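Ticket #4471: structure output looks truncated?

Reporter: J.K.
Steps to reproduce: submitted the chain below (194 residues) through the standard prediction queue, then opened the result file.
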Amino acid sequence: MAPAAKQPVFYYDLGSPECYLMAETVLRALPVVPEWEPVPAHRLAPAEDAQGHATPGPDRTLIELRAAQLGLQPLRWPRTWPPDTRMAMLAATFAKRAGRAVAFSLAAFRQSFAGGRDLGDENTVLLAGAACELHPAALLKGIALRSVSEALHTATARAAAAGVCALPALEHDGEVFAGDDAISRLACALGIAA
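Returned output as attached by the reporter:
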């Protein structure tokens, strides 16, 4: 009997519209639910390119076009950009410990990119928590735990060790899949058509 295949990992940052698009796609495109692992994108990729220039922000027009092609509701960009997602990423890490990473993260992405809300605002994070039945007091307490902060740090180190240098990314059996075709390439590696 062959050993069970290792579960793929989906690395994402809640402040990334590209991660939002992959999050909305990955569950229906793969035959297995990947492990959802929140990691801060700025810890993986430098804020400047080799010439010392700031890396550009997302191409909003392209992101909006891709969202429409996926059948998502029109994007509503948060007023505060780029967002300070530290609290939201800690909340996603806490939600993962509670077995609610997917539900919390989808709710947070939707609050931000479908609702235009700031993920740096505590109320937005609490709304996302309520959507997956995380009590506000428990969520706030969880965000403040040192062990949650350490788990986020460990996840970031895990992503870097796996070779992830940009988000969103999928990793399976030591191979990293990134870019617009990441899901279809992972699906091929899993032996299915996406």
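Triage note (M.O.): checked the attachment and the full token line is present. The longest strand covers residues 9-12.
Status: closed, working as intended.
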